[in-house]
């Protein structure tokens, strides 16, 4: 019973911290949570103009490029923004850590969950865009759920890694932002995987988050059947990243109080 009560307490604390992150980010702004919709939408509109009208990039099955791009950004931003927030989740809560004991793993987990709120707002806008362009959702949207779980495993694993390393090396936040910028352009967010030259495409198969974004967008917009072998490989990689991140975090955790 004590174990169950502790699990319930820490679970409630995780959700409370996640909601606190959402409120703190938007409470003093005039538009509040609407920024979770406005930011990705404006990015999609600007980049859609640049890539579709200047670089003549192709979309998926004649889907308007702004919808194509916004869908890819929705799933990428869940990963990229989660890592950016999680990196400073420990160092930004040093006072909280010194006041009482609780599993430090809760802080990067809450940072990722807070970005899930933004993700669902973006999904709402994506639905409105599809309605505006008379695009119908596909029957196999249920397949997005297991892919989302796999993406969250992958994201949490890296969140644990970067947040724990940032306690020891404070330049980790700058490094993460640079890596994410290159990582996004090396992922099929602005283009479809089939556009990558055959010789280079095999290297893209090692980019798990890129494959997940591509698969999620293909299901959402084109109803493409899932490559279950690719999903299984992505799941195993994501699980390995999650376990590695959790192990590294627990290994470094005794040093947190000493360093901070």
Automatic annotation (TrEMBL):
Presence of the UniProt keyword Transmembrane helix in the record: yes
Residue ranges of every copy of the ABC transmembrane type-2 domain listed in the record: 31-252
Matches recorded under PROSITE patterns: ABC_TM2 (PS51012)
InterPro entries associated with the record: ABC2_TM, ABC2_TM_bact-type, ABC_2_transport
The entry's keywords: Cell inner membrane, Cell membrane, Membrane, Transmembrane, Transmembrane helix, Transport
Gene Ontology MF, one: ABC-type transporter activity
Transmembrane segments: 30-51, 63-84, 105-133, 139-163, 175-193, 231-252
A Gene Ontology cellular-component term: ATP-binding cassette (ABC) transporter complex
Location(s), subcellular: Cell inner membrane; Cell membrane
One of the GO biological process terms: lipopolysaccharide transport
A Pfam family reported for this protein in Swiss-Prot or TrEMBL: ABC2_membrane
Membrane topology according to the record: Multi-pass membrane protein
Keyword Membrane: yes
Domain of life: Bacteria
Family the entry assigns: Belongs to the ABC-2 integral membrane protein family.
Protein name listed in UniProt: Transport permease protein
The species this protein was found in: Desulfotomaculum copahuensis
